[in-house]
Every structure is written in C-alpha cells, then in structure tokens.
Amino acid sequence: MENIENIYPFRNCEHESNNELITVLFKKEKLTFIEKTFFKKQSSEPYKIDLDEVGSFIWLQCDGKKNIGEITKLTEDEFIDKVSPAKERVELFFSQMHKNKLVSLYEKKEK
C-alpha cells in the first residue's frame, strides 16, 4: 500500500473480548463446494480469528475516527519496543484485514 496514513479504518464484523485479547467473528461470503456439501452445519457458524496483544490493540482503534497514522502512533506509544518498526506492522495488519474484508478503509474528503 502506498501512503495510507490518512486512511480511516472501520471494522466490518463483530468481535469478542477474552482477557484483553480479541477474537474476530466473521462469516465467509462464498463457500467452496466442499464446504457447502460436507460442512453445512459448520458453515453457518462464524469463523474466528484470534488476535495477539498488538493486533487486539489495533483492532479496537478501528472506529472510523482515527486514521492509520494516528493508530500507528498510538501503537508505537503503547508497545514501544515490541513493535519495531510500528509502521510496517500496522500497515501489514490493515493490508491483511482489508484483503479478507474484515475492515473497510476509506479516505475523508475535505469540504
């Protein structure tokens, strides 16, 4: 991704919290033939992704009010040495979440 610091992320799915860690819950849009045929019951249940401490922190910041630059700074301040370099870690997180349609990324237009 190019300059994404001014992009605002917004969560597209629900999550649950367990001991300060986040589990993202989502439904898969298109099921494969095998999933439809052999795993009908399981395919109706949400998929789950467990996030680590840093991912959980970033996920909770995705409220559509903070841009990625601000979230990167907050992450850097919160985890200091755990996420070095923070910019790459945060951008990778959003790249993966956006690719899997778990977050939407939008740019605010100036009036």
Identify the notable features of this structure and list them briefly.
23% strand; three-stranded antiparallel β-sheet; 111 residues; Outer Surface Protein A, domain 3; globular; two-stranded antiparallel ribbon; alpha+beta
Estimate the strand proportion.
15-25%
Helix and strand string, N-terminal first? EEEHHEHHHE
Class by helix and strand content?
alpha+beta
Question: Could you name the CATH topology?
Answer: Outer Surface Protein A, domain 3
CATH architecture: Alpha-Beta Complex
How many E strands?
Answer: 5
> Can you give the mean pLDDT?
84
* Uncertain segments: none
Q: What CATH first level would be assigned?
A: Alpha Beta
Widest sheet, order of strands: 2-3-4
- H/I helix tally: 5
The number of distinct structural domains comes to 1
Radius of gyration: 16 Å
Q: Helicity, in percent? A: 40-55%
The largest sheet is: 3 strands, antiparallel
**Broad shape:** globular
Terminal residue distance:
25 Å
Could you explain how this protein is built, in words?
It contains five helices and five strands. With 111 residues, the protein is an alpha+beta fold. The chain has one domain: Outer Surface Protein A, domain 3, CATH 3.90.930. The strands form two sheets. Strands 2-3-4 form a three-stranded antiparallel beta sheet, with helices on one face. Strands 1-5 form a two-stranded antiparallel ribbon. Strand 2 and strand 3 form a beta hairpin. Helix 4 (68-79) crosses helix 5. The radius of gyration is 16 Å and the shape is globular. The two termini are 25 Å apart. The mean pLDDT is 84.
